[in-house]
Amino acid sequence: MMSLWLFLILGSIFMLCKGESGDCDNFSDLDLHECLIGTNLYVRLLLYTRANLECGQELPHHNFTQQPLFNITRPTTFVIHGYRPTGAPPIWINHIVHLLAAQEDLNILVVDWNRGAANLNYFTAVANTRGTAENITGFIQSMEAEGASLDSIHLIGVSLGAHVAGFIGSMLGGRVGRITGLDPAGPMFAGVPPEERLDPTDAQFVDVLHTDMNSFGLRGTHGHIDFYANGGLDQPGCPKTIFSGKSYFVCDHQRSVFLYLCALNRTCHLTAYPCSSYTDFLSGQCLQCEAFKPASCPVLGYDMSKWKDTLLRLGQTRVFFSTTAELPYRKTSYRVDLVTWNQFLRWGVIILRLHSGKNVIESRIDNKLLRFEQYTSTRILAQFDEDLYPIQKISLRIVTGNVIGPRYKIRLLRIRISPLENPDRSLMCRYDIIMEENAEVSFKPLPCS
C-alpha cells in the first residue's frame, strides 16, 4: 500500500512539473534540415514581463487584451532577431529579456520569425523582412486601437532585425518612440535608398551601434546617433583568420549584442565622443563634450534621455569609442596635453605608463607619428585596458626609431593628464623635464597650477 501511495505522489509531481513547463512558450528551435530546404514565414510574439521572466507566453495577434500579463498601458519593447542560418535560437534572448525587465516595468515582446529567417539562402531571409514588418505593424496598429501610445514603443533590432524595425517604423509613419539598431545588416542593404533600410525618419529617435561594417554590418550613418565601437570595424579579441572557424565570421557582428547587454547590465560605462572619424578620435582631436552639457558625452545604453533633445537638434551624430577584448569592455581614457621644445625636428610615437604601487598599466599611442619640433603643443588620447588609482608615478618615452647616431634631447615643458570618464579625479601635471628620445623618464605627478 505504501508503495502505491509513493507511486501516486511521484506521478502527481511529475505531471504537475510537466504541466508547468508545458505552459511556457519557447522560441522556435529548428534543425539544419529545415534550414536546408527553407522555411516559410511564420511570426510569433513571445511575451515576457517581470511576472513571467522564466516563462514566455505566446501572445495572439488578435484578442491579445485577454492575456492578463499584457498591460496595454505599460511601455512595450519589441526584440527582433536577425538571420538564423542554422535555425537555433539566439543565445542572447534570455539575457536581454532579463536586463530589459530590470530597466523598468515593461511588456517585452520577443519577435520570433525564425521560420523565415532560418534559411540557408540569405536572400530569402532578406525577402521575409518585409512580411515580418507588415505582421508586427498590424499588431502595433491593433495595440494603438486599444489605447497604447506609440511614444512608448521601443523596437530593438539585431542585424536583419534592425531593418525589420526600420520597416515597421516607416509603415507607422515614424511615430514609434524609438528604434535601436544593433549592427544593421549590410549585405543587400548597402547603397539602397533610405526607404529600403533603417533610417532616422523611421522613429522619433533612432540609435545605432556598429561593430562589423567591413563584413556583415552596414557602413554609414543611419540614426540620430550612430555609435562606432572601435571604429565600427574589427573588434578586439575576435579572430583575424578563417582558421578560427565560425567565430571568424560572426564574432565582430555579434559583439554589438554583447556590448549592448553589458551596457544594459551597467557593468560597462561606454562613453562615446562625437567625431568625424575613428582616426581623428584616436588622435585626440575629438574629446570635447561641450555640446551636451550639463550632461557628459553620450553613453551607450538604454536610457538616452540626457542626450536625446540635443541629438535631435544636432541632426545625425557620429560618436566613437574603444573597447577591450573582454568583459567589461571599458577602457580607461586620459587626455594628454604635451608642450615640448627641442632644437631638431623629431618624429615618433609615445609610450605612457601609469604606476600605482607595484601595478603598472601601459598605453602605446602609435596610431600615427607625432611631430616634435622647437615649441610644439601636442594633444593625444591615451587609453588603458585597466584602471589604476591613485596614480603615484608616470613614465614617458618618445620612441623615434633612431638607433644610429646621437640621442637627441627633448625638453618637456609641460605634461597635463586629464581623466576623461572620471571628472572627480584630479588633473595630473609635471613641468620642465629634460628627456632623451627612446629613453624612458619617470616622475611623480603634481597638482596642476
TrEMBL record:
Belongs to the AB hydrolase superfamily. Lipase family. Keywords: Calcium, Cell membrane, Disulfide bond, Glycoprotein, Hydrolase, Lipid degradation, Lipid metabolism, Membrane, Metal-binding, Secreted, Signal. The active site is at 159 (nucleophile), 183 (charge relay system), 253 (charge relay system). Hydrolyzes specifically phosphatidic acid (PA) to produce 2-acyl lysophosphatidic acid (LPA; a potent bioactive lipid mediator) and fatty acid. Does not hydrolyze other phospholipids, like phosphatidylserine (PS), phosphatidylcholine (PC) and phosphatidylethanolamine (PE) or triacylglycerol (TG). SUPFAM superfamilies: alpha/beta-Hydrolases. GO terms for cellular component: extracellular space; plasma membrane. Residues 1-19 form the signal peptide. Residues 39-329 form the Lipase domain. Gene3D superfamilies: alpha/beta hydrolase (3.40.50.1820). InterPro entries: AB_hydrolase_fold (IPR029058), Lipase (IPR013818), Lipase_LIPH (IPR016272), Lipase_N (IPR033906), TAG_lipase (IPR000734). It catalyses: 1-hexadecanoyl-2-(9Z-octadecenoyl)-sn-glycero-3-phosphate + H2O = 2-(9Z-octadecenoyl)-sn-glycero-3-phosphate + hexadecanoate + H(+). It is found in: Cell membrane; Secreted. Ca(2+) binds at residues 197, 199, 202. This is Lipase domain-containing protein. Its main location: membrane.
